[in-house]
Design brief:
alpha+beta; FAD/NAD(P)-binding domain; nine-stranded mixed sheet; eight-stranded mixed sheet; binds flavin-adenine dinucleotide
Length: 396
Amino acid sequence: MVTEETFDVVVVGGGVIGLSIALALSRHSACSLRIALIDAGRLESPAVSEGYHPRVLALTEQTIDWLSSIGAYQSINKDRVCSYSSMHVWDGEGTASIEFSAAQRHLEQLGVIVENDEILRALLSQLENSGVTQLANQSVENISVAEQTMIKLSSGKQISTELLVAADGAQSTCRQLLGITVQEHNYHQRAIVATLSSERAHERCARQVFLKTGPVALLPLEGQEQNRLSLVWSADEDVASDLESLGDAEFAKALTKATEHVLGNLSLETKRYAFPLIRRHANQYVGKGWALVGDAAHTIHPLAGQGANLGFSDAEVLVEEIIRQSQRGVRLFNPLSRYERRRRIDNELTGLSMTGFKWLFGHSHPAAVVGRNFGLSLVNRTKWLKDWLLKQSQGR
Ligand SMILES: Cc1cc2nc3c(=O)[nH]c(=O)nc-3n(C[C@H](O)[C@H](O)[C@H](O)COP(=O)(O)OP(=O)(O)OC[C@H]3O[C@@H](n4cnc5c(N)ncnc54)[C@H](O)[C@@H]3O)c2cc1C
């Protein structure tokens, strides 16, 4: 097979992480890298819809800064960005709760909630005229690494590159083709997501109740009446199956009860979607001619809404290391080991702490209930601990 094109960097995966990397690299004109972006899908802006899409992301301040620095955040439609100014987390089995407020910490906001599609749209619009070669509707079928990395696409086309950046999501074909193993922990839970409307205004507060069977998050969405919410209900598999089998009205009733009527009656605005929850962590992020990033490198429990934020941190650090290596005249084919060193611990610790939270709140033994209620009350009363937790949640 004859190589048809050669690039310095080929990004596989046009999700939010892959797109942000391609865009950031294209902005570094000093390096003038030849960049290609490949996706199995269309690489077109998602259609604009009046209703909210149930796939949303809670972005930290650090992610907002990164997306702003590459010119993408500015082009997200602000009518769809909900700035939230408080968080309320409580134990559905006990009495303790914890509250964070932006005002108390002299911040403007704690973060924003925005649909995944809105971020995709902003990134894709910025990629127009960026010089990045876009290869849509093509999936990676084979990878071989010798003097360069050779990629065979489903169209039969073969391209070569100094560096393949695998941003092709949790089931990463690239990771599998490269033979990279992962540590896996199945939570035996599924997350049910949907858009909701509520009887009472959310007042820009992100709420989460921890039930024995998993956490239920009600994330505020933008809108004058403040009555649109995004639901992430993580539940043990048997409970999730029961919930999925309910009709819309019964489901909404169960949800209203589970969230203790905190926002009055809740109703469904969209279909429900369910995702299996599995923590994965690749045993290697880099090798000769390749690097893994975002969900291709790690997935975590969504209970703190940190998955994509970790991916954006990977993206930021990977771009820095690519630029550094390229400005030093070192081949990008050489493993970007500093990227792995700078990101692995953060990703590992965040993943483990989500597992710890899930474990702690998954027990109804009286000692566990007393322990976590004492812990939550203590955190709520201890300023430095609360400040520290808040900083972690903001990615700083
Ligand atoms: C229920 C739930 C709620 C969440 N909530 C939050 C939150 O509030 N905040 C947060 O930070 N994170 C959250 N996350 C995590 C977040 O959704 C992911 O971390 C993030 O979307 C991953 O982005 P990505 O670009 O790495 O992968 P993806 O978005 O999966 O993109 C992968 C891309 O690769 C393409 N692709 C796949 N295979 C191939 C192939 N063989 N060849 C070519 N292209 C290919 C796909 O078409 C796709 O475009 C949540 C996750 C879940 C499950």
